[in-house]
UniProtKB/TrEMBL annotation:
Pathway: Cofactor biosynthesis; NAD(+) biosynthesis; deamido-NAD(+) from nicotinate D-ribonucleotide: step 1/1. The keyword NAD applies. Belongs to the NadD family. It comes from the Bacteria. Pfam families: CTP_transf_like. Keywords: ATP-binding, NAD, Nucleotide-binding, Nucleotidyltransferase, Pyridine nucleotide biosynthesis, Transferase. Its EC number is 2.7.7.18. The keyword Transcription regulation does not apply. This is Probable nicotinate-nucleotide adenylyltransferase. Catalyzes the reversible adenylation of nicotinate mononucleotide (NaMN) to nicotinic acid adenine dinucleotide (NaAD). It comes from Quisquiliibacterium transsilvanicum.
């Protein structure tokens, strides 16, 4: 199943990609996923939404304000990318279903909301709060991330794909589950934080403005000299 779209088959309605995560820190892999999704799915924009209080992951290193600022710096000069602070302003756990509900109320019934996931998140989707409601609020688009396979998925996800899987996004506000491809980008937040803690400077894996922000505030432990 592929969501690659031809230029002559652009949808009539606006399409907004939603990319959530802790972004602790945001890195080139996140940006590559967003760029690939925008091209493959004919997205008009991608909103990066850092979590406030993550209910599934353990503690994060940078606080919500710092992670939001890093996202803002990373996307500041990229047309069609924007940071969204709604989850960092929300009290309590950050649930994706609440975020999509808010966006649907703000934007109305017409725009297509497209939740962008990596294969690790798709496999874990049945553990999410009210996850079955997501396709009634928007579409789901997934790409393979690192070495997490899209084969032999959990039974609940196989059922979801049987009911909602499509070759390409329907020109509708919600209801499709599609796959899209992206080039491999071997980077992870865990590895980056370990490198920064060792005093390394992984310049090729972080947007320059983000690396400067990390160094200026001495986030993630030791930082190396320039």
């Amino acid at each position: 199943m592929s969501a690659q779209r031809m230029a002559q088959d652009l949808p009539a309605r606006r399409r907004i990609g939603i990319l959530g995560g802790t972004f602790d820190p945001i890195h080139v892999g996140h940006l590559a996923l967003a760029r690939s999704a925008r091209a493959a799915l004919a997205l008009d924009e991608v909103r990066f939404i850092p979590t406030g209080a993550s209910w599934q992951k353990g503690s994060v290193v940078a606080d919500a304000g710092q992670r939001l600022e890093m996202v803002r710096l990373a996307v500041a000069d990229v047309a069609g990318f924007r940071a969204d602070d709604r989850e960092t302003r929300r009290s309590g756990p950050s649930y994706t279903v609440d975020t999509l509900t808010e966006l649907r109320a703000e934007l109305g019934p017409d725009p297509a909301l497209v939740l962008l996931l990596g294969s690790d998140q798709l496999r874990n989707l049945p553990t999410w709060h009210r996850w079955r409601e997501l396709v009634s609020l928007g579409h789901i688009a997934c790409t393979q991330r690192e070495r997490v396979s899209l084969q032999d998925l959990p039974p609940e996800i196989e059922e979801l794909l049987r009911e909602h899987g499509r070759q390409a996004l329907a020109d509708a506000a919600s209801g499709s589950v599609v796959l899209f491809s992206m080039p491999p980008v071997p980077v992870s937040g865990t590895a980056l934080r370990a490198q920064l803690a060792r005093g390394e400077r992984p310049a090729g894996l972080l947007p320059p403005a983000v690396l400067e922000y990390i160094e200026s505030r001495k986030l993630y432990g030791r930082t190396s000299a320039r």
